[in-house]
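Quick one:
INPUT:
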């Protein structure tokens, strides 16, 4: 099935197959029926990247099959993409083809949009961007009414801003997020909202403090903060930490601190293996961590981090790779049992699925 054009009639069938597969995969750890969160069947993806196919003095959006990078599929629609992306694609392409300056050596276009309607377009080139390009790009920006960002080797030219502002309504409250171009954000906005709602519901009967590893821009951290006395979150990316600090202020959260550390470094700090200057203003002994939230990269938790989180009464583990989550569960199930199990269809019509488990101490 071409990912730019999908048959929505098959959506429920493909979701059922994923659920059946994951139910069987998780059977050694739980017999709970999974809580399933479906995606909208179309227009669910808030980010998109297109290669730009240059031929005969014209440029078109193109996609490639994996491993076949010399055989482009020229596309004129992207039904998995947000409606905002689809609305911007035709006028952007027309404007680029009318300007040799904008078209020449353009090899990639990226769209970043939000559920609340904000958008940012990044044009990426195999040439330096000069004042002439900037003048043309500013005219394009004005005609589209959308910020344009230019990139080339060792060059980033921001004409207005390099971020979008998302607004998510969750449990009767609207949360605001600054999402910076090039940094990680959840690609499926409806599933992101569902994951946050589910995570909050897992903490309704909780007390004590929250520790979060891999917090990104505060996507989960900020809505969860009101469920706890204090929250300490860690993230290694400087861009994400800076965005998270702005998001904390924008949402008026006062019981949350973020420190720039990797999960491995935090494990060393909490074990007092070595001190970190970035923690000099934090008294780790003052926290009473009752819950730890992890949403790690695809590699899952390393052995030391896995052992560290196993100390806490409750582990909320959201995973973009159920295979590595299952590997971690082999260790975590020695001390914890699965109290809740969720499946999030982040990427419909693909083999990819995200999963969540709430683990409680045995």
């Amino acid at each position: 099935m071409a990912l730019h054009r999908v048959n929505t009639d098959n959506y429920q069938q493909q979701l059922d197959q994923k659920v059946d597969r994951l139910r069987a995969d998780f059977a050694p750890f739980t017999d709970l029926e999974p809580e399933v969160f479906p995606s909208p069947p179309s227009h669910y993806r808030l980010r998109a990247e297109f290669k730009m196919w240059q031929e005969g003095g014209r440029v078109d959006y193109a996609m490639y099959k994996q491993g076949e990078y010399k055989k482009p599929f020229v596309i004129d629609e992207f039904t998995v993409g947000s409606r905002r992306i689809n609305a911007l694609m035709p006028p952007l392409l027309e404007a680029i083809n009318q300007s040799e300056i904008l078209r020449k050596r353009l090899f990639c276009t990226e769209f970043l949009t939000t559920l609340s309607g904000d958008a940012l377009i990044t044009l990426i080139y195999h040439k330096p961007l000069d004042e002439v390009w900037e003048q043309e790009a500013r005219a394009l920006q004005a005609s589209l009414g959308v910020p344009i960002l230019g990139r080339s080797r060792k060059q980033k030219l921001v004409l207005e801003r390099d971020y979008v502002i998302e607004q998510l309504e969750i449990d009767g409250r609207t949360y605001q997020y600054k999402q910076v171009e090039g940094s990680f954000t959840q690609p499926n906005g409806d599933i992101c909202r569902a994951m946050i709602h589910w995570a909050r519901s897992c903490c309704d009967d909780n007390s004590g403090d929250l520790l979060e590893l891999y917090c990104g821009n505060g996507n989960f951290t900020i809505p969860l903060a009101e469920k706890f006395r204090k929250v300490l979150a860690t993230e290694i990316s400087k861009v994400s930490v800076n965005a998270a600090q702005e998001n904390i202020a924008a949402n008026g959260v006062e019981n949350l601190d973020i420190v720039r550390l990797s999960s491995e470094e935090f494990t060393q700090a909490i074990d007092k293996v070595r001190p970190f200057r970035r923690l000099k203003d934090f008294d780790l002994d003052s926290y009473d961590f009752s819950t730890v939230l992890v949403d790690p990269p695809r590699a899952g938790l390393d052995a030391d981090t896995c052992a560290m989180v196993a100390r806490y009464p409750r582990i909320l583990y959201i995973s973009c790779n159920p295979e590595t989550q299952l590997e971690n569960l082999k260790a975590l199930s020695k001390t914890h049992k699965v109290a809740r199990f969720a499946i999030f269809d982040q990427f419909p019509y693909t083999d990819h699925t995200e999963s969540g488990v709430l683990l409680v101490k045995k």
